[in-house]
Structure formats: structure tokens, C-alpha cells
Amino acid sequence: MSGGKPPFLTAIIITALRNKQHKELTQQYKSASRPLGVFLIRNNKTDKVFLGCGIDLRGTINRHKFQLSTGNHPNRELQADWNQLGANNFAFEVIEELQPRNETSFDSKRELEFMEKMWLDKLKPYGDRGYNKRKVNRRHV
Predict the structure, then answer these.
(1) Could you state, in order of their start, the residue ranges of all structural domains in the chain?
(2) Tell me: the pLDDT tens digits for 35-54?
(3) Strand intervals (E) in 10-89
(4) pTM
């Protein structure tokens, strides 16, 4: 061996550095502030919309895209139109986005529920206008 570290030692060092880098990137991802918000999936042929929301807005939109592309979306009517018309006839639109705050009084789930209800009341994406189903208020059932 001439002058360098033995190959097995070099491999151990590289693996340790990769593990450290992976842990640091994972920690950065977990601590990153991701916006919450409300979005629409718009059928460009009929103008019907599906209103959705999520604590991690981008992740939620990606999940819906994946479910639709694999034929596994929980909204069967939306899935059927997607299958019939194709992905090119649908648009994903963010209609309200909010950065989470580090204040202890900020309740992101409550804020998201409020935003969703406000947009459902405003757009009424039910029946001929949309794919959403009215939520049953369990307190009054």
C-alpha cells in the first residue's frame, strides 16, 4: 500500500459521512416550515372542482396527484372523470396558503378547518358544481 488509507477504511469513512449527511438532511426536512392551505382540482372540461386542504399543502397535493394517477383516489366520481378525460384536462390550483407560525396560540389544524369551511361555504363544490360531498355534522345527527 502506498501512502493512502486502506480501501476498507476509506469506505467506512465515506459511509459515516453519508450517514451524518443523511441525518442532517432529514432533520432539516423535519424542521422546515411547510405551508398549510386549501387547493382545488379543477376539471377543465366541466369546471367542476374538488376542494381539498392539508397541513403540508405541497405534500397533500402530491398525494392527490399520485392517487389519481394510480387509480386509487378516494373520490370515485373525480377518479372516473380523471380516467375518462385524462390528466391534461385537470388543473391543481392553490387558493389559500398560510405559513405556520411558531406562536403557541397558533393552532394549525383549527386554522385549516376554518379555511376549508370558509371556502366550502363560498364555492359550494357539491353536485353539478363539484366533487365534494357534504360533511355530516355528527353533533346534530
Answers:
(1) 1-32, 36-134
(2) 999 999 999 999 999 999 99
(3) 36-43, 49-54
(4) 0.73
